[in-house]
Specification:
Layout (H helix, E strand, L loop, with lengths): L3 H9 L3 E2 L13 E18 L4 E19 L2 E12 L9 E9 L4 E8 L16 H4 L3 E9 L4 E10 L10 E9 L1
Antiparallel strand pairs: 1-2, 2-3, 3-4, 4-5, 5-6, 6-7, 7-8, 8-9
């Protein structure tokens, strides 16, 4: 009960705070603000079949990012992503976030570093599992987004497992293009 109560409270009060604009590069130069994202979730998949066994995801994450905009078309962000699962005593280390956003034109933004989450790609099941928002929200790589009143295009690559020379594990990355006209 001690573990479930905070998750229930966070579920009732989950929020996203945007310091300036939403999903765009700030248009005010030499500004500094704090962007806090938080999601609390209960995803109940308690089903049993010969093919797969069910599971339940209960938890939350918090993602504070300090953003500095030295010019009208450039932002730097640094922060942390902390994932918390209810009912487990295993400590999950927070991930360091660092990103650079360039507003190349009025409609095009290039992001390098920490990406703003898997749900921003606007892809749905079965192409891109929507449950990733609960387990794989944190992405690191590059993204190029074009958005107009009639067009949305997001080309991205997410490095999930980077390797060095001589590593015994393989490199893992996800890449994609989300296009809507």
């Amino acid at each position: 009960m001690r573990t479930v109560l905070p998750v229930i409270i966070l579920t009732c009060f989950s929020f996203t705070v945007h310091g300036q604009g939403k999903d765009t590069v700030n248009n005010n130069k030499e500004t500094l603000w704090l962007n806090i994202k938080s999601i609390s979730f209960i995803k109940n998949n308690e089903y049993f079949s010969p093919i797969t066994e069910g599971y339940t995801l209960i938890g939350s994450f918090v993602r504070p990012v300090l953003i500095y905009s030295p010019s009208d078309n450039f932002e730097l962000g640094i922060g942390l992503h902390q994932q918390i699962y209810a009912g487990t005593s295993e400590y999950i280390k927070p991930h360091l976030l660092f990103s650079a956003n360039w507003k190349l034109s009025e409609k095009n933004i290039l992001t390098l570093g920490s990406l703003d989450g898997c749900d921003k790609h606007r892809m749905h099941d079965p192409h891109f599992n929507t449950e990733r928002i609960y387990s794989n929200f944190d992405e690191t790589g590059a993204s190029f987004v074009t958005e107009t009143s009639h067009l949305f295009s997001d080309t991205w690559i997410n490095w999930e497992n980077f390797i060095f020379r001589g590593d015994t594990v393989r490199e893992i990355f996800t890449a994609g293009e989300s296009f809507n006209y």
